[in-house]
Amino acid sequence: MLSSLQIFGSLALLQVVASQQIWDIWQTTWDRNKLFTYFQPTPDPINFVTPGTIGNADIVIDDSSVYQTVYGFGASLTDSSAELLNNLKVQNPGSYWQLMDYLFNATDAANSAGFSYIRVPLGATDFSANTYSYDDISGDTSLNDFDINAAPSDVFSILQDIMSINHMARFHIVPWSPPGWMKSGGTMLGGSLNTQYINTMANYLLKSVQAFSNKGIPIYAISIQNEPEYSDSTYPSCNMPVATEAQIGLALRTLLNNYGFSGVKIIGYDHNWVDAANYPVQLMQQAGSAFDGVSFHCYQGSVSDQASFTSQYPNKEVYFTECSGALGSDWWSDIKWYMDNIFIGSVSYGSSSGLMWNLALDGSGQPLLPGTDSCGGGCRGVVQINNDGTWSVNQEFYSMAQASKAILPRDVGGPWGQRIGVSVGGTLDWALVVGAYKTGRVSSSDWNRYSIVVLNWDDSASTTWNPQPVEATIEFRGMQATYTFPVGVTTLWWYAPN
Predict the structure, then answer these.
(1) Span 93-99, mean pLDDT?
(2) Is the dihedral of CA 300, 304, 310, 312 positive or negative?
(3) Closest CA to 316 of 338, 292, 299, 336
(4) Rounded to an integer, what distance in angstroms lies between the CA atom of residue 30 and that of residue 461?
(5) pLDDT > 70 fraction of the chain, expressed in percent and rounded
(6) What was the pLDDT predicted at 350?
(7) Which residue in 114, 206, 377, 463 has the fewest CB atoms around it within 10 Å?
């Protein structure tokens, strides 16, 4: 007769084995047959069982290797995006709230993307109705005329609406230019900061954090300057050498600490992958004590360049903060690129966020700042809002939504997903791009959620176009599950003890 201890042990083992089942799948397929569609495997859940022969691709999860926390996906709420969203709210309130819920509701199991990381420009960008800063009174070095309400009121009302849906949302603010009177050419359009205004600019940034806070919008992070290695005379921009950004960062860190904002992160660089080995590294060398990390954009270089920074500063945080869709590009080709380079790729290289550029634009990539040469072929928003009160979501939405589902907190007040180790073997190891994540729980007795985001890009697109589903095995803690991934993006998860 078995002892009670043996029986208990056997039952515990059975429970662990039985618990490792895949019940939940979100999927977007190349043919749009599924568009961020939730379903459960039929007729039964997918069980993890004693390992057999591996599939054509073999996904090996290593949950003993735990990396950065991922705080989510999203886009920039530009003035243009806020204007279009507010117009929709006025014109068709029901449709507006339906869209906002679809974008931002982060409740577990909700039919929504749960976007949770929003970048907000400080002052005008190339997607504003006019050029302005929060203090355009020349020579006002004491910033007595600083006024955040120089920005359109739409910006703040939309941010409040986002917060009403997603209380976990993080807001990251950044200027496209200092006020024009602080700059070499006297204008926000291109040029560089006069270094006599370094401390004034630091104070300007502090006042920005304070002003958002006074409106009930808590700031998670601030950057010193958008794209500091680029200057364009047709829209707000500013060339800012490393030494200048470093000095502003050091001054700002002290101000934030002294005025009760020690928890606000300062994120440096905010520019393209291509210079990851230089500008951000030099910034850490000169002012590492002030900066929590750096952020990257997609327009030059490759995602692997992030390693040039993280290899030298593994304890600094990395964020991915901007990439824009382009009008007229191919829907499925874009999704493949986004997943490989940003929403799986950049996270695999250490990013804690993945953001697109404009949250919303119209079908022509408008409204743009009058006279700007930005977005030559037209930029595409994550959402398209039409003047008849209708909206649609673009390929950027589906890419981010698939990634977002894997990392959102499982419990109210619970931890965000953390990237864990994963590799792909088998004869079709090249066919799948995979990110893997562990989401902890509030209660220690509840089991963790383990998620994978899988891009199957076995479509022979460069030759004859022949999309092929890939039968894959998933290896986890000595057990094995089998699933056939269609060409597209699939997010699935299971639960297991810590």
Answers:
(1) 98
(2) negative
(3) 292
(4) 11
(5) 96
(6) 98
(7) 463
Q: Counting Cβ atoms within 10 Å, is residue 404 exposed (0-12), middle (13-18) or buried (19+)?
A: buried
Measure the CA dihedral 348/353/357/358, to 10°. Answer: 140
Q: What is the pLDDT of residues 319-341, one digit of tens each?
A: 999 999 999 999 999 999 999 99
Round to whole Å and give the CA distance between 458 and 466.
8
Angle subtended at Cα 17 by Cα 11 and Cα 19, rounded to the nearest 5 degrees? 100
**If we measure between CA atoms, which residue out of 469, 462, 467 comes closest to residue 490?**
469
C-alpha 372: how far from chain center: 26
| Structural tokens at position 411 | 């419990």
| Residue pair 447/476 in contact by the 8 Å Cβ criterion | no
Alpha helices in 136-176 (DSSP H): 153-165
At 197, is the pLDDT very low, low, confident or very high (cuts 50, 70, 90)? very high
Label the pairing between strands 73-76 and 351-358.
parallel
| Residue 497: exposure state from Cβ atoms within 10 A (0-12, 13-18, ≥19) | middle
- Quick one: residue 114, left, alpha or beta (phi over 0 = left, psi -120 to 50 = alpha)? left
Return the half-sphere exposure (C-beta side, CA atoms, 13 A cut-off) of residue 85. Answer: 30
| Three-state DSSP state, 106 | coil
Q: Which helix (H) or strand (E) holds 247?
A: helix 242-258
Q: Are 325 and 369 a contacting pair, CB within 8 Å?
A: no
Q: What is the pLDDT of residues 435-446, one digit of tens each?
A: 999 999 999 999
Residue 57 has pLDDT above 70, yes or no: yes
C-alpha 455/C-alpha 341 separation (Å) is 11
Question: In whole angstroms, how large is the CA radius of gyration of the chain?
Answer: 24
CA distances from 486 to 53, 341, 491 (A): 20, 20, 12
- DSSP strands (E only) in 165-264: 170-175, 221-223
Q: Are 472 and 485 in contact (CB under 8 A)?
A: yes
H or E, element range at 39: strand 37-39
pLDDT digits (tens, 9 = 90+) for 447-496: 999 999 999 999 998 899 999 999 999 999 999 999 999 999 999 999 99
Alpha helices (H) in 329-470, listed in sequence order: 331-338, 345-348, 395-404
Q: How would you classify residue 356: left for phi > 0, otherwise alpha for psi between -120 and 50, otherwise beta?
A: beta
In the predicted model, what is the mean pLDDT of residues 114-137? 98
Mean pLDDT of 114-125: 98
Nearest to 399 by CA among 12, 11, 36, 6: 36
Half-sphere exposure for 31 (CA within 13 Å, toward CB):
9
The answer to whether the bond into 367 is cis (omega within 30° of 0) is yes
